[in-house]
What we know:
Helices cover 9% and strands 40% of the residues. It has one helix at 46-51; strands spanning 8-11, 21-26, 30-35, 41-45, 53-57. Strand 2 and strand 3 (30-35) form a beta hairpin. The protein starts with 7 loop residues before the first strand and ends in an 8-residue tail after the last strand.
Amino acid sequence: MDVRLGDVLTMKKTHPCGSKQWLVLRTGMDFRLRCLGCGHEILTPRSKAEKNIRSIDRKEENTEI
């Protein structure tokens, strides 16, 4: 699964604050995610996070000079 820095992940389950959206701060074997509802940060294994992703919202960067 192609997850990049700055992506917003919509998860299947809600966080206790009620938000389902998480910002990707770090990728690799683990993901560091920040809840967009309350700002709580977690470090979770890639395999566990990828199972719970419903959609990925990516801001397309403009590469024109």
